[in-house]
Amino acid sequence: MLKKVLLVLVASIGGYFAYKKTQQSRADKDLWAEAVDPVTPGR
Questions:
Q1: Residue 30's closest CA among 42, 22, 19?
Q2: What pLDDT digit, counting tens, does each position of 1-43 carry?
Q3: Can you tell me the distance from the alpha carbon of 39 to that of 29, in angstroms, rounded to the nearest whole number?
Q4: Which of 9, 28, 31 is nearest to 20 (CA)?
Q5: Which InterPro entries would you find in this protein's record (predicted)?
Q6: What does each C-alpha distance from 29 to 7, 15, 34, 39, 40 come to in angstroms?
Q7: Sign of CA dihedral 22, 27, 31, 37
Q8: Phi, psi for 40 (deg, rounded to 5)
Q9: How many helices (H) and strands (E) would you count in the chain?
Q10: Which pLDDT belongs to residue 43?
């Protein structure tokens, strides 16, 4: 029983860190896309 609880806990922590890394990567991509977006003058 304790092993199952620990396994679920470790899997949950791993999933949380994977989710946070994915969110950070998406934010970085959005930031770069905004930074290098060509701006048309007069619009």
A1: 22
A2: 999 999 999 999 999 999 999 999 999 999 998 888 887 766 5
A3: 18
A4: 28
A5: DLW39-like
A6: 33, 21, 9, 18, 21
A7: positive
A8: -90, 120
A9: 1, 0
A10: 58
